[in-house]
Design goal:
15 strands; 9-stranded mixed sheet; alpha/beta; single chain
């Protein structure tokens, strides 16, 4: 007989062992793809997968841990029997799902999630889809793993094998502690951001990342979000009409006539994304004076796009809009679904195909909002994040301060193979707005703190650019500067107000032949990708939701979304539409019925595209 205090940790380890074996079966079943992985990559699928394995093992362990605790308090409770049936039932269910996942991956190329629920109403199609599956083999796999682990559980892990050897109340206290400690693996550790699929995305090979996923965790996560990703709630018109309206908006842009601003053919590209940089703090965009003097100077030296709007109001949404030129969703975000972001174009992919080295720098955790999986799908050569910086450089919440981030970028680019595409994402102008330099502006309220944090990031940016201009790579480098999104402050703008979404977009750098230009045309954050690629004369037809802002168009527009509504801006007027209330909540200028219909069409068609990804 084993000591009762060992039951909980051993039960947890039992499920960890199950998930490790399940991953091995997945790799063996897909041996042809596994053969393309190095031994190190195979090992990493297990090592990186441990955190998700532990997370789902913790979910599974909640009930047995509570039953074990209750049985110490109420000794008549048949906890051993209840846990046994619970465990065997779960083994049968998870083993069956494992087999389903093995075959579906062969056809779909992503791990089991909520997608099969889309076909529940079409049983004939579901049956037809399984016609070619090796059902007998899958049945044997299900039976073998379920029976083997049932036998293992009955022989070594069943609660009946554990005997209480010391004080019942002390044991109860320990059992309560075990249950409380499940919170740690359940959320992935002490870190601020709860665990998500990004923690297993370690490779630029999608199969390696997929193998690292814990299938039941992935399925549970998808089911919890199913309604937000499987159905388009925006049915304003026939789908074909919505499609035609949107296509006409993009067809209105000229593909033959575009200004060319560069003096080199294959420049390095340094893409700097500024956290929460609202136009309201930028003098060159009509904002407050003195908050961003360095950015304003760069705007005067380079090409300043003065009428650009963010696609959404969250960092992860802005990331997709900037790097994939893809519209933002209202109540969810495509970045939460790695199997969908795999189908998006990315700037890093284009540059990699052109022989560029690629890198991404962020002072915080890349697991935030699943950004890491998105970047891995983009194929970046190197990802630098919080854990590549000295902890002494962190602020209290997010990670390394911006000047530290820029120092690291400057250091690395001295050895970077050229041409390079390097993305740099700042963080200090995010709440709690902590800065490592004396404040410039008075006040201690949120608005004053935000203003000072924007000033600090501008100071760090100015220092970086001044030093970058002394580097050998500068003369052949195009610098792209944009924001991930705007901000309600200053002024406390409501979610739907367009002023909240207006952001900077600047082209500068030594590779720029023409400077001192101001482009006043209306555009969206999603348009930056096509504009950049067009300047480098690189293909951008895959970025179908992005248009070249330097090419003439007869239908300029900007589109953004808020919680469950959208904004649609044209030179004629501004519309903000609430999808729940089914009415316009803001109109400025001459908003025509045609503009309203085009806005609805864009909302409908872009979300439909997301659902079908």
């Amino acid at each position: 007989m084993k000591k009762r205090i060992l039951f909980q940790p051993l039960y947890f380890l039992f499920w960890m062992l199950y998930f490790i074996v399940a991953r091995a079966i997945f790799l063996i079943y897909h041996l042809e793809q596994s053969a393309d992985l190095t031994s190190g990559e195979v090992l990493n699928t297990f090592l990186y997968g441990l955190r998700l394995d532990a997370s789902f093992a913790a979910y599974i362990s909640i009930l047995p841990f509570l039953l074990a605790l209750l049985s110490l308090v109420w000794q008549r409770l048949q906890a051993a029997t209840a846990v046994r049936y619970y465990t065997i039932g779960l083994l049968a269910l998870l083993s069956a799902l494992l087999s389903v996942d093995l075959e579906l991956y062969s056809h779909w190329g992503f791990r089991l999630d909520a997608s099969p629920l889309q076909y529940i109403t079409s049983p004939a199609e579901m049956a037809a889809s399984t016609a070619g599956a090796p059902l007998f083999l899958l049945f044997l796999v299900t039976l073998a793993i379920a029976v083997a682990f049932t036998f293992l559980y009955r022989r070594a892990f069943d609660l009946r094998h554990f005997k209480q050897y010391f004080n019942r109340w002390a044991a109860s206290g320990l059992a309560l502690l075990y249950a409380a400690l499940l919170v740690l693996p359940l959320r992935g550790g002490w870190q601020q951001i709860p665990i998500n699929q990004s923690v297993v995305y370690f490779s630029d090979k999608p199969f390696a990342n997929h193998a690292g996923l814990n299938m039941p965790w992935n399925l549970m996560h998808a089911l919890l979000k199913y309604e937000k990703s499987s159905h388009n709630p925006y049915q304003y018109m026939p789908e074909q009409e919505a499609k035609e309206r949107v296509q006409q908006l993009y067809a209105a842009a000229s593909v033959d006539s575009s200004q060319h601003l560069l003096r080199t053919e294959r420049p390095n590209v340094l893409f700097i994304i500024l956290e929460s940089y609202t136009a309201k703090f930028i003098e060159s965009l009509g904002g407050e004076r003195g908050v961003t003097p360095n950015l304003d100077r760069l705007a005067r030296e380079g090409v300043n796009f003065t009428n650009i709007y963010a696609a959404g109001d969250r960092s992860e949404k802005g990331m997709v809009a900037l790097l994939s030129g893809y519209p933002v969703q209202t109540t969810t975000s495509i970045i939460k679904y790695p199997q969908k972001t795999e189908k998006l174009p990315q700037l890093s992919q284009v540059f990699e195909q052109q022989g560029y080295s690629t890198s991404y720098y962020y002072g915080g955790e890349l697991e935030f909002a699943n950004i890491k999986s998105f970047l891995r799908n983009g194929g970046y050569d190197r990802l630098i994040d919080k854990y590549d910086f000295d902890p002494s450089t962190y602020n209290s919440k997010w990670g390394a301060h911006d000047h530290v981030l820029f120092e690291r970028v400057l250091q690395d680019l001295k050895q970077e193979e050229q041409p390079f595409f390097s993305t740099v994402y700042t963080l200090s102008s995010h709440e709690p707005f902590e800065i490592p330099i004396p404040t410039k502006f008075p006040g201690t309220d949120e608005e004053a703190k935000f203003r000072n944090s924007v000033y600090y990031t501008d100071w760090a940016l100015g220092k970086f650019i001044a030093e970058a201009k002394q580097q050998a790579w500068w003369d052949n480098t195009l610098v792209v500067i944009a924001a991930d999104h705007g901000h309600p402050l200053p002024g406390g703008d409501p979610n739907h107000v367009p002023r909240k979404y207006r952001i900077p977009f600047i082209l500068t750098g030594g590779a720029l032949a023409k400077g001192g230009m101001q482009e006043t045309g209306l555009g969206s954050q999603t348009d930056i990708a096509a504009t950049l690629l067009a300047q480098l004369r690189l293909p951008h037809s895959d970025f179908k939701w992005s248009r070249n802002l330097l090419a003439p168009t007869s239908s300029p527009f900007a589109f953004y979304v808020f919680n469950d509504g959208f904004g649609y801006i044209t030179p004629s007027g501004t519309l903000a539409f609430d999808n729940v209330a089914q009415k316009a909540i803001l109109t400025e200028g001459a908003v025509s019925e045609e503009q309203v219909q085009n806005g609805k069409a864009y909302m409908e068609y872009s979300f439909e595209d997301f659902v079908k990804k």
